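May I ask you to comment on the folded chain given beneath this request?
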Amino acid sequence: VWQSTRPGVIQRPAQSTVSAASIAPSNDTCALPRDLTLPAAGAEISQLVDTSLGNDDTAATCGGSGSPDQVFRFSVLTAATYTFTATPEAGSGGVPVLSLRKASCDAMTSEACVVAPGVNQPATFTATLSPDTYYLWVDATQPATAGRVTITVRR
């Protein structure tokens, strides 16, 4: 509805907007982690995520306190070795943190935890995983280093 506050002058109505950052993704907490499909032997999968859209729900044992994060869940059916990498978008100033938890999403201990060695560099780790359910937390060292990250899993 157009409004008029002065005779002869019509103003557009005030618009309300909801920014994407104000709505956290569903996998922002342990309540609804996003399922991650593991690759077949000799293959890899990649997925783009934006950690800046989340809230700070956890801190990894190696970093990430105060930064927005997201969590992914996957099941290992037979023991295998996987390499997990979080690569920030080029020029983003990102410093990703990866934390792998086993059996409990809320666990305060990590099977693996790694911080990227510097700005715009990937965080990566390799682990031999036994059959179980795992939770991969994608975080950042601080809010200013959160953002678009490509998660890659190789087997």
Summary: The two ends are 57 Å apart (CA to CA).
